[in-house]
Specification:
Layout: E1 2-7, H1 12-24, E2 28-31, H2 43-54, E3 60-65, H3 69-76, E4 83-85, H4 89-99, E5 103-107, H5 113-125, H6 132-157, H7 170-179, E6 185-186, E7 192-193
Parallel strand pairs: 1-2, 1-3, 3-5, 4-5
Antiparallel strand pairs: 6-7
Helix pairs in contact: 1-5, 2-3, 4-5, 6-7
């Protein structure tokens, strides 16, 4: 199996152990960095890993940081990524069985290398069950599509690089345009309320 792996500085040592474990099992690993313990910002590394999976360059991805939380969040910003932060074999199994997770997030400050490798093994060996879970995944995909449409409307309303384009309509206008609901109002998080 081809697996993309990314990490920040806090996840570097655990990444080395996980990559070695995967390669010893015969997996092809694409190491997307970071390649040392010098402080780096994790979002671009994790997004790159998720993009490799979503675009078909890797079958699954693994992102590793201190806690794994920011890495999971960053990977999940990529349309089509379903990153799951797992701290044990049980959550890894359910992430694959019920949610068809395609990116595994691990916390190097939380997991010992042996447990991390056990979690990786379960994640890779577990298949999606489908059935009743497919409808829930379809719901996730619908949310992604709705959000993409709302942000496309917002982007079209933003000024272009020359400053001659239309003025920004803001999140409320994007939500109104995507839902057709003039009563939608902006929330602090950019979402809409009715």
């Amino acid at each position: 199996m081809k697996i993309a792996v990314a990490n920040d500085h806090a996840g570097f040592a655990l990444k080395l152990a996980v990559v070695d474990h995967l390669r010893r099992q015969g997996h092809e690993v694409e190491d997307l960095g970071a390649h040392g313990e010098q402080p780096v910002d994790y979002p671009p590394y994790c997004a790159d890993c998720a993009r490799h999976v979503v675009r078909g360059f890797a079958q699954l991805g693994i992102v590793i940081g201190g806690s794994g939380q920011g890495e999971q969040m960053s990977a999940n910003k990529v349309h089509g990524a379903r990153a799951a932060l797992c701290h044990d074999e049980y959550t890894a199994r359910l992430a694959r069985q019920h949610n068809d997770a395609n990116v595994l997030a691990l916390g190097a400050r939380i997991l010992a290398p042996v447990l991390a490798c056990d979690i990786v093994d379960v994640f890779l060996a577990t298949a999606f069950e489908g059935g009743r879970h497919q409808a829930r995944l379809d719901g996730i995909h619908r949310i992604e599509a709705e959000e993409c449409r709302a942000w496309q409307v917002l982007a079209q309303a933003m000024p272009d690089d020359t400053g001659t384009g239309p003025a920004s309509a803001g999140p409320a206008s994007a939500n109104q345009a995507s839902t057709g609901d003039a009563s939608a109002t902006a929330m602090p998080d950019g979402g809409g309320a009715r």
